[in-house]
Amino acid sequence: MKNIINVLGLLVLLTVSTSVAQAALPLTYEGRGLYVSYCLLCHGPDGKGDGPLAKAMKISPADLTTTVRSRSETILIKIITGKGRQTITGRDRHNLLSEAMPEWGDLFSEPEIKGLISYMRFLGRSKHDLMGDPEIGLGLYQKYCKVCHGEEGDGEGIMTELMGISPMDHTNPNETNSLDNEELVKSILDGKGRFMPAWRGILNQSEVEALVSYIRLLSH
Ligand code: HEC
Ligand code: HEC
Question: Which of 27, 31, 159, 207 is most buried (most C-beta within 10 Å)?
Fold first, then answer.
């Protein structure tokens, strides 16, 4: 009996720790992963509606960088799941979404749908390309940056509290959007101010580029 209780205890611990790990993934970052797997083929790498399948379709996939901006959360959820009336005023011929857009039903969990919406909004807002692989950036950020910039990139890391400094808030799109990719690369390689370390010699160019695109996906 005791063994069973121990095993149960362990299972509970495991479930708790995996869900914590998942919850820690930034919304926009998670949305990008899903977008690449499920949406890119039609809507294209930048959301402009020019994916590899677009040419074969009678109704062209929407340019998400212009349409999604004016859509509410509620209508976007309906569009993705296919549940409920999907009015899309503003697209040329029709005010109801056509069947050319697949209905995903219950495939995505609620947080996943939020992530997809967050990434679609990011596509419309971001002024800069993702220059490196954000999946590599995620690991590097956890390893080298989160002590100061915080787990979520909001600038509330352990070291920040100790030193009383305020690093850049990577979750604020106005702050990150104001710098182009080259400026971010330079700050990371050469450091900034008194406390932002220079990473030249520790991180190579492609690792820094991976970090830059991960930082862009922290914004929401
Ligand atoms: C098979 C191709 C295809 C795939 C895959 C696809 N879409 Fe679409 N999507 C379309 C087409 C075509 C339209 C335009 C439909 C219309 O105008 O009636 C559209 C429209 C939309 C719209 C409405 C745009 C507006 O006017 O506001 C949203 C939002 C959208 N798609 C999101 C997604 C998301 C998120 C995914 C991935 C989970 C996805 N789509 C995957 C083809 C696709
Ligand atoms: C010791 C704490 C510390 C660590 C570790 C740290 N940073 Fe910073 N970072 C800061 C501070 C403080 C600032 C604000 C600097 C300023 O504007 O004076 C900053 C600013 C930045 C900026 C904005 C630069 C600009 O031009 O305004 C970027 C980008 C950045 N950090 C990325 C990173 C990355 C990527 C890592 C990990 C490889 C990292 N930081 C690790 C403290 C840190």
Answer: 31
